[in-house]
């Protein structure tokens, strides 16, 4: 076998490996986002039960419950982008956190078996969402690295691949929690 033919075969193998690597990373990002989406759907399914359980107790926080219900409806719309899903997820996370803090102000509600079960279920789903977000962010980081690094960036550009967004926490979630303020409510 001649040297130019060997070089051509080696180059072809490298190109195929780079192509397959990029496709695998893109598919991994989409697969993990689908698992995040599944966990978010599970949370959206729990929200009506939570709202129904706490609404009769929480007349003062009615606007908060309405906001959660509205956000859930928006999140369940078909054909929303991944970016919109991420933004709605951040808003729902914040609103649910506020509901859980408000529940602490209602001793009868806090002792209610259904509400306690819903709180445990939501906490479990939130932990699963957090784990899925971490996996997604890692997959996106690997994917974005492949899009930026030489020589895969050249092939990614030819394939029309674009960088993906990672899940980020909101500015409110970055602030330190004022424990004294929580107990004074």
| CATH topology name of the domain at 25-132 | de novo design (two linked rop proteins)
Biggest sheet, in brief? Answer: none
Radius of gyration: 23 Å
Order of helix and strand elements from N to C terminus: HHHHHHHH
Q: What is the CATH level 1 assignment of the domain at 25-132?
A: Mainly Alpha
Number of helices: 8
Instruction: Determine the structural class based on helices, strands and strand pairing.
Output: mainly alpha
**Amino-to-carboxy terminus distance:** 81 Å
Low-confidence stretches: none
* Nearest-integer average pLDDT: 86
Q: Tell me how many strands there are.
A: 0
**Inertia-based shape:** elongated
Subcellular location: Membrane
Organism: Sulfurimonas paralvinellae
Keywords: Coiled coil, Membrane, Transmembrane, Transmembrane helix
Coiled coil: 115-142
Question: Gist?
Answer:
The protein is mainly α and 185 residues long. The chain has helices spanning 3-55, 62-75, 82-103, 107-111, 113-148, 152-159, 171-174, 179-183. It has a domain at 25-132: Up-down Bundle (de novo design (two linked rop proteins)), CATH 1.20.1440.20.
Explain how this protein is built:
Residues 115-142 form a coiled coil. It is a single-pass membrane protein. Its main location: membrane. It is found in: Membrane. This is LemA family protein. The structure is a single chain. By secondary structure, the chain is mainly α. The protein has a domain at 25-132: de novo design (two linked rop proteins). The chain is built from 8 helices and no strands. α1 (3-55) packs antiparallel against α2 (62-75) and α1 packs parallel to α3 (82-103). The protein is elongated and about 85 Å long. The mean pLDDT is 86.
